[in-house]
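Reposting from the mailing list since nobody answered there.

I have sequence plus structure tokens for a pair of proteins and want to know whether others read the tokens the same way I do. The first protein:
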Amino acid sequence: MNIFAADDEALALEMLVQAIKEARPDATVYDFQKPKKLLEFAQENQAEIAFLDIHMRGMNGVELAKKLKDLNPKINIIFVTGFDEYTGDAMAMRASGYVMKPVSKEKIETELAELRFPIVPKSNALLKVQCFGNFDVFTPDGKPVHFERSKSKEVFAYLIHKHGSSCSTKEIAAILFEDAPYDLKQQAYVQKIISALVKSMKQIGCQDVVIKKYNSLSVNCDLIDCDYFRFFDLDSGAVNSYNCEYMEQYYWADFMFESYDDYD
């Protein structure tokens, strides 16, 4: 087993490597203080696992993880952090893929053991949403959700992209029809599309997923298990699944997500 380890602080890197070797004495560990050096090495050498400090100068752990995924889509990413915002209940509820500093043999063993298991979806999720690759929506048992109108599905995709933030009818119209004038006729048409979306959600018992108010539409993120949401929670499995493809069937999605390929 080959393992990459990266931390821009020498002492922290030394402690990380020592803990990894204690947990997996049969593994070959390649350690790097500079992310760019790791990337150069990874061009010719592969590893099954990468332990990456999140907060590194020049290139943070998330950006480094995505670049490693470009080289090896099956590499397992485990983030290492010393910041308090990743502790507590939020930390405990996330899927595997975090080691809190100071690292130890026991913490490393826990994460390595959990690599064998899939990400556990939210127990209260009414829908499972896939954004990486093509956009698709499924019920918890894996059945594709039928949308009465294709434009309704696109509206739902945009609401997912908004990550719970509300948007107006005019904003939705601009996404669906780009430079077309926003007049009463178009407004009425967009309202029909939104009504069709709400109807599709009601038909599968997911009416609470879409929050509709006066000239305002959003989604309840707590009821959705989504790779895009987990990506920004720094969920290692979501980072592993991202291959620079996001809602491929929608032209606006590539434009809107391209900045995250330089996430820092």
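The second protein, same order (residues first, tokens after):
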Amino acid sequence: MKNIIACNLGSYRQYGTIAYAHLAEIGLTNVEISVPSTDGVETLQSELKSHGLTATSLLGRCDVQSETVVEDFHPTLKIANEMNVKVIFVSVHAGETDKNVVYDRLRAIGENAEPLNVKVCLETHPDLIHNGDIALETMKAVNHPNIRVNFDTGNVYFYNHNVDAVTEVQKIVDYVGAVHLKDTNGGYRTWHFPALGEGVVDYKAVFQTLNDVGFYGPFTMELEGIEGENLDEAGVKARVANSLQHLKDIGVI
């Protein structure tokens, strides 16, 4: 089975209007996009289709500190189902809320997602998923097959000291439902996310680890750039194209 490679449209920064055409030009057919409004689904689907693109994941909002989060998440699940998207990416933070309460809320969201065959994937962010050990603790506590981890190969360095992406993903390999491909210079809290292949992440080993347990994606390029740089449109397009080429060069596409 082939790996599913996608691109988060945020990778194009202020040049988002050219993203669809450029992705089609370089032969990348999958995208990660924000959840559209209910009345915007049809238009969005038509636009994606016109460029030969498919949404493989949606960026949703999930405020697990809110008492109404389970109910509030219903429209996102409904839209994902309408679009036939099986992965919803969310960032969750327990904050001062009792973690057991948060786990219960996530489990209830998983129960609602299960009949739709949708996986709600939690980003590699504090304070529930920021490294392999914490993510494993969260996954075991939630204990629902439709609540998974979105493993971010760059964030795991950004939020932790002395870690390695391959080692961290190995800890949670059975719980990964989606991956963000983000390279980094490895610095803690350092905003340095270049093109794939220009940092410290061993992508071939990350892919191998996940492929070995039958996970083939979506692997979504999320190219957040380097603090202080000022890329023009050509530079942004080159970073996306070069990242895709790196994945080809290491044989995962």
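Reply #1 (J.P.):
I read it the same way you do. The first helix runs from residue 19 to 26.
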